[in-house]
Amino acid sequence: MNEPRIIKKYPNRRLYDTAISSYITLEDVRRLVIEQIPIKVVDARSQEDITHSTLLQIIIEQEESGPPLFTIDSLQKMIRSYGGAMQTFLSKIFEQGMDVYAEQQSLFKGNAAASVSQEDAKDPVRLMTDIAQRNVAHWQQLQQQWLNNFGGPQSSAAEAVPASERVNEDTHVTTSVKTTE
Q: Between β-strands 173-174 and 5-9, what pairing exists: parallel, antiparallel or unpaired?
C-alpha cells in the first residue's frame, strides 16, 4: 500500500497538500478519496491525525448539497448506537456492507468482468440474481459470526449456505461455483 498523501490543516481552516505544495479545498480532498488516493489529514500545529473528522466534514457537505444518503431515522439510530455494547459490531457490519457495495459497483462498471461469466453478463436478471444470492450468503455468514462472537446459540445459518457460495473472510470476495447434476 502506498504511503498516504499528507494534507495539513492550518488554524485558518486552509488545507495544504504537501505532495503538490499547494493549498486545496475540501472538494479536492473528496476527489482524492474518490480516486482512491490514500490520504492523511493532520493538524499543522499539533500534528494530530484529523482524517476522520475531515472525512466526516466531507460527508456532511455531501448530505447538505444534494439528496441525502442517510435518512433522519437512520441518523437517529446511528446516534443511539454510540457507546453501546454493539458499537464495534455495528461499525464492522457497516464497513463490510460498504465493501460488498463497492464490489457490486465494480461488477456493474465492468471492472470485475473476470468474476462474471459471459452468460451472466448477457443476462441482467441472472446477474442480479447472482448478486442477491451473494448478499444472502454474506449476511448469513455475518449473522453466524455475530452469534459466535456474542455467545448466542450456534445457528446453522452458515451451514445452510453451500460451501461454493460462502464469503471469503480474508478478501471479502464471494465465490460461486456452478455445478451440473
A: unpaired
pLDDT per residue rounded down to tens, the chain (181 residues): 589 999 999 999 899 999 999 999 999 999 999 999 999 999 999 999 999 999 999 999 999 998 998 999 989 988 888 888 788 888 888 888 888 888 877 776 764 455 556 665 567 777 777 777 877 887 788 777 767 766 655 544 444 445 544 444 444 444 444 444 4
Which residues, listed in sequence order, are joined to residue 168 by a DSSP beta bridge?
Answer: 173
Amino acid identity of residue 8, one-letter, is: K
Instruction: Name the strand (E) or helix (H) holding 24.
Output: strand 22-24
Q: Per-residue DSSP letters for 33-46?
A: HHTT--EEEEETTT
Instruction: Say whether 115 sits in a helix, a strand or coil.
Output: helix
Global model pTM greater than 0.90: no
Beta bridge partners of 49: 42
CA 97 from centroid of its chain's CA atoms: 6
Alpha carbon separation from 117 to 83, 86, 177 (Å, rounded): 44, 39, 11
Q: Which three cell numbers stand for residue 46?
A: 499539533
